[in-house]
Amino acid sequence: MGTVSSGNGTSEATILVVEDEQAIAEALITRLAAEGFRTAHAADGPSAVDAALDSLPDLMILDLNLPGFDGLEVCRRVHATRRVPVIMLTARSDETDLLVGLGMGADDYLTKPFSMKELTARVRAVLRRANEPAAAASGALRIDAARRTAEFHGEAVHLTPTEFDLLRALHAANGAVLSRLQLLDKVWGYRDGSVARTVDSHIRSIRRKTADEVVRTVHGVGYSLGEVGQQMHVGLVVDR
Ligand code: CA
C-alpha cells in the first residue's frame, strides 16, 4: 500500500510461520496474507532458527513438533539472541499444560485444531502486547528491601530470602551479566563451582513466581535482569 505504519502495531508486521505440515502452513500463510501481514515460512527446527534471526519477524507461529529439533529448542536458540514473540502450536492440550508449567517463554498457545479466526485474534493480541513492553513491564515487579516483601502486578509474591538476595544482586549489577560464581559470591558469600547449579534452581523459582522476563539467561555466561526485571521498582528506604 505504501502507507506508513499507523502505529497500531499490526500493520505490515512480518510473521514467521514454522510448520512442517504443508496444508496447515499454507492455510496459515493464506489467511495471514489476507489479513495484511507479511509472511515467511520454515518447515524444520534449524531453518526456523535461521529464518528468525535473518528475517527478523515481529512474531513467530511455531509448531511444537518439527523435524530437526522441536519448537522448544527453536525458542531457546532464538531467544538466546533475540526476543521474538511466539505463539506455540501444540497437538494436544496436555502438551500446552506441560509447556506452561515449564515456563518456556511462549507468549500464547493454540492447540490443534483451531480456527483461523481464533489464530488471527491471538496474533493481533500478542503483537499489541509486544508493542507496549515498557508499559506492561513498568512497575510490574516491586520489591521492598527493608521489609523483604515483593509484589508482582499488585499481588504479593513470597520470595525466599535467597531469591530476594539474588534479585537485589542482579539489580545492583545495573544491567551487567553476572556469572553463577559471581552470584554465589554475592548472595551466599562463597565461590564453589560444584554448587553453581544451585543458582539455576533459585532463578527458576523466581521466574515461576513472577515471569520469565524478570531474569534473562545469557547462555554460557550467567544471568542479568530481563525486560521486566529492569523495570523493577526497588524500595530502599531503610536498607543497610
Ligand atoms: Ca508438526
Radius of gyration, Cα only, in angstroms?
20 Å
Strand ordering within the main sheet = 2-1-3-4-5
**Strand residue content:** 15-25%
What's the total helix number? 9
Shape: elongated
CATH superfamily label of the largest domain: Response regulator
Terminal CA distance reads 59 Å
CATH topology of the largest domain: Rossmann fold
Bound molecules: calcium ion
Secondary-structure class: alpha/beta
Number of strands: 11
Description:
The N and C termini lie far apart (59 Å). The chain has nine helices and eleven strands. The protein has helices at residues 22-34, 45-54, 71-79, 93-102, 116-130, 133-137, 161-172, 180-188, 197-209, and strands at 14-18, 38-42, 59-63, 86-90, 108-111, 141-144, 149-152, 155-157, 215-218, 222-225, 233-235. The strands form three sheets. It has a five-stranded parallel β-sheet with strand order 2-1-3-4-5, sandwiched between helices. The protein folds into two domains: 14-131, Rossmann fold, CATH 3.40.50.2300; 135-237, Arc Repressor Mutant, subunit A. Mean pLDDT is 84; it is low at 1-10. 40% of the residues lie in helices and 19% in strands.
